[in-house]
What does this fold into?
Amino acid sequence: MSIQSRRPLTEIDSVQDDFWNRDVLKEVHTRSPRMLQTFEKVKSVAPTKTTVLLLGDTGVGKGMVAKLIHQHSSRKDEAFVHVHCGALPDTLVESELFGYEKGAFTGAAKRKLGRFDSAQKGTIFLDEINTISGAMQIKLLQVLQERVFQRVGGESPIEADVRVIAASNSDLQQLCDEGLFRKDLYYRLSVFPLEIPSLQQRSEDIPDWVNYLIDWFNKLYSKEIQDADPVVVKALQEYSWPGNIRELENVIERAYILETTHILRPESFPQELFTDINNTAEVELDISLPLAE
It folds into this structure.
């Protein structure tokens, strides 16, 4: 296998995972000029304290880039805390981020530390920041402006020695124009905006993704798939991938499970992947035929 064994990047939620402890992130490579430009920007911003806003569709690898920034910063030996804002009910976001004091509300039997506590001296990654409520936007703005936060039911501000990386899969500027996102918070978050290209925009990376996904699933399922059929790789490169890397991982895993030989063949994949290739082949065949007189 030409690519070193590694876990699918979008599946990892903790820098304590063995994958990250081996510093494999520092060896992430890409053939795509657009991703190379992205990594150059990461290299520039990572050593700073600057707030970073990651933009891009769902599944493009914003979490991977956030971890990459953390791993190349002076905070790399401290915690990296990933918060999926979109997965938290509005009523729980504040207590989850900032914690609460004993007696702050019914059921608060003792103090609970929040994610900002856990991220002290490290990095907090606020994923899907576009989903938080207006009230939470105000509280987060205070953290970014004053570098302090307050637990629910607390009276004393707590210093926030935390680097903030945020991500959005929606156009925050448009949300601001629609009155759904605070402009002052947007400006605080977008000191260093970083657009992550979609998988369709970096299709030259797909063969390498396929290689190390095969290698990973070989270990996960104790099978010995050696490669993917060239027809499969071509189809994967021409498919639009609306779900980006996450969708690619799912498709490869499904094919891997179904495959009974040592090669991932077209028969193991959803046939809609090959629609564009078949259409192209038909056009080329028609062009090659002599014109009717």
